[in-house]
Amino acid sequence: MTAKNVSKWYGSFRVLTNVNLSVRKGERVVICGPSGSGKSTLIRCFNRLEAHQEGEITVNGVRLHNKMRNVTEVRKSVGMVFQNFNLFPHMTVLMNCMAGPMWIKGVPEAEARKTAMKFLERVRIPEQANKYPVQLSGGQQQRVAIARSLCMEPAVMLFDEPTSALDPEMVSEVLETMTSLAQDGMTMVCVTHEMGFARSVADRVIFMDAGQIVEEGAPNDFFANPQHPRTKLFLSQVL
Ligand code: ADP
Ligand code: MG
């Protein structure tokens, strides 16, 4: 997954400026930075929830551009987990996990059910399969959202502040799930302010400010020896 010199505008407001980011297979990248710095916009460009205007984004060998016919192909290979879970409220947990494979990939129902149960077990909530999202805690809902993404067997998982809408006591169960995915070799790009997670899981930490990548490095260097004043200021606020 590669972004080369990517820029994006919302109207006349330039939200991303010449962003360069390359994520290798199996790599774990954490993106941090102040609110409004363009983190969500950047990762949303990677699965074409947003369109960029300049530069080049390539995902699994497919170049994302305005004339592309099949955005679904890209979304199939890039899973996304949102801050607010975004589960389908009118479907059971099980159906939330079966819907994508059945309706987008054409997987037969029995197989979709089997895959859904496998991944609900993977996130350790198989017993919630027949409940509706509203009956679950925030941490459980977010684990369903992770399982739902995994059911599509994506090549890359994007996480957009997956723990910031959770009550504090539920943060760790979601971070543990993410850590275990990382240990399985999943390629992951995580926007998060959980610096403990970044330290223990990330291969690389990226700091964004005002639509630009200001600094990046291996977690040890990044936390011990931040170079840019804006990185130092940010770390002093979140650590
Ligand atoms: P972050 O995720 O780092 O908080 P965002 O990518 O959500 O930042 O937003 C970056 C900037 O773009 C912010 O100033 C935000 O207000 C603006 N923005 C985000 N989405 C839109 C949109 N759909 N239309 C106009 N401006 C937007
Ligand atoms: Mg955001």
From TrEMBL:
Similarity annotation: Belongs to the ABC transporter superfamily.
Any GO MF annotation of the entry: ABC-type amino acid transporter activity
InterPro entries per UniProt: AAA+_ATPase, ABC_ATPase_HisP-typ, ABC_transporter-like_ATP-bd, ABC_transporter-like_CS, MetN_ABC_transporter-like, P-loop_NTPase
Alphabetic keyword roster: ATP-binding, Nucleotide-binding, Plasmid, Transport
Annotated PANTHER family: AMINO ACID IMPORT ATP-BINDING PROTEIN, PHOSPHONATES IMPORT ATP-BINDING PROTEIN PHNC
Classification via Pfam families: ABC_tran
CDD domains xref list: ABC_HisP_GlnQ
UniProt domain ABC transporter: residue ranges: 1-235
Record's protein name: Amino acid ABC transporter ATP-binding protein
Domain of life: Bacteria
